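DM between two lab members

TW: hey, do you still have the ethanolamine kinase entry open?
JB: yeah, one sec
JB: this one, 380 aa:
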Amino acid sequence: MDSGSADDRNQLLHVDIQVNEQDPRGGILDLLSRLRPHWRVQDIQMKTFTEGITNQLIGCYVGSLQEPGCVLVRLYGRMTDLYVNRDREVEMFQVFHTHGCGPQIYCSFQNGICYEFVRGTVLDDELLRQPSIYRLIAAEMGRIHSIQPKRGLSVEPFLWTKMSRFLTLLQRSPTSSPAEHSVAQHEVPSFETLSAEMETLKRHLSLIDSPTVLCHNDLLTKNIIYNHKEGMLKFIDYEYADYNYQAFDIGNHFNEFAGVNDVNYSLYPSLELQRDWLTAYLESYKQSTGREGKVIAAEVTQLYIQVCKFSLASNFFWGLWAILQSRFSSIDFDFQRFVLLTEATWKKKKKKKESKGERDFSMWLPCVVFLAVCVLCRFA
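TW: and the structure you got?
JB:
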């Protein structure tokens, strides 16, 4: 599947207003007067959703949210433009929608976007583990990974560029928030150490030969909407969607099995679940890319190994992101609790690898505290 032309993607209404985050109704009504001019102001209802982590999300409707025509208004989080490419996000919105994989985006404005409301239920940690659900997720990811870039366009994994951007911002940003002081108490690695670790990680993972595909890159439960009536689901929120390593997208999703609100690393998917998930994924990916042949065990094993390694790259990625969040947020996290949880998990994974003769751990982040940060600042 081709991702379409750039001209098609650039034709999006932009409304030159800024919506007040503290009192958004007036600004939102201004937007709706352009998007839904037939709606009477007195009939318009608004609902604030709490699932968002860094952004404010408001559903606008007349009658019921489940009726067609509802509009979601997303107000960007504080200073998120520093590390989120908003033009790229809009482009990804349109690519996903063009291929039937996401909602329609209606317009952009100075500090946010408006888009179609996806009817259904936000997944929770229990639904995520149900075979009928996770196979749908695997199949949908396979479809998305099959979307090809515009003909003649060369793409590179965004992972290293984005992490380099994070590191640059870390070097330049202040460290005055309560959350950042809490991080410092637990000896988060220095900028120099983090930079060196990224380069080591890059050297190792670049040799794995994981395909570069269109990825969501942030597939936590809150970004999956399940429509039970239709028996289908959609991925939402494309702030980090871009071309990236296939195994990163999958490994990142597997990390999300541990949860967000109540992190429990024992919930990381079992080998049996992972292999079943990967089989469903490969079946979808093969079908969507026009490849013939049944999925064989060797293919599943190869992808499983790649995913295991890139799941740690996901920890590193969100760790950098989380430190940035802590510097821009006033939230005080329970860092010690997450550090202890992650340290125990790290030791368990290391012991398992050592028992298999994999003793070269120099390519992985040695500071176990850093692995915790990827989770604890997802609330910032």
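TW: got it. Residues 215 and 314 are 13 Å apart (CA to CA). Confidence is low (pLDDT under 50) at residues 5-9, 330-344, 359-369, 372-380.
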